[in-house]
Write a structure and sequence with these properties.
Helix content: 55-70%
Number of domains: 1
Number of helices: 8
Largest sheet: none
Structural class: mainly alpha
Strand content: under 5%
Order of helices and strands: HHHHHHHH
Distance between the termini: 16 Å
Shape: elongated
CATH topology: Serine Threonine Protein Phosphatase 5, Tetratricopeptide repeat
CATH class: Mainly Alpha
């Protein structure tokens, strides 16, 4: 089935409801993702086990050594365990340099490094808007 045919059969339009309200020209990305925040729909969260300060510092040093030696995944596991935000942010930078944008966004979100999250969310929202507009244009033909 072509996109044009599939779009015509959309329940909202066939029921006479017109275009869905989410298809606004300028979508507020914060509102779009806000309803999913409490559901943990995009980011898997775990509760780190209780680690005392000395253990946490030792693990963070080990994670930094792994990261610097190129074992990014080993470092990531340690940083997730300890909740080391600078380490998570560096892992996110590494993923971003490798064009693994969703993985980078996840690391930034967990860090939490909102300064790096927000531009990526803006890009994601713009990309989704473009897809929606392309489908609208196809349905208008």
């Amino acid at each position: 089935m072509r996109i044009k045919e599939r779009h015509r059969a959309a329940p909202a339009q066939s029921a006479g409801l017109g275009k869905a309200p989410i298809l606004k020209k300028y979508m507020d990305y914060k509102k779009a993702f806000e309803k999913f925040e409490k559901q943990n729909a995009f980011v898997k969260k775990t509760v780190p086990p209780p680690v005392d300060g000395a253990q946490k510092a030792a693990l963070n040093r080990k994670g930094n050594m792994l990261f610097n030696s190129g074992d990014i995944e080993g470092a990531r596991r340690i940083f997730l365990t300890t909740g080391y935000s600078d380490g998570l942010s560096r892992v996110g930078d590494y993923y971003k340099s490798r064009h693994r944008m969703m993985d980078a966004l996840q690391m930034y979100w967990l860090a939490p490094d909102r300064g790096k999250c927000e531009p990526m969310l803006m890009q994601l929202a713009a990309m989704l808007q473009n897809i929606i507009h392309e489908e609208e244009d196809l349905s208008d033909e």
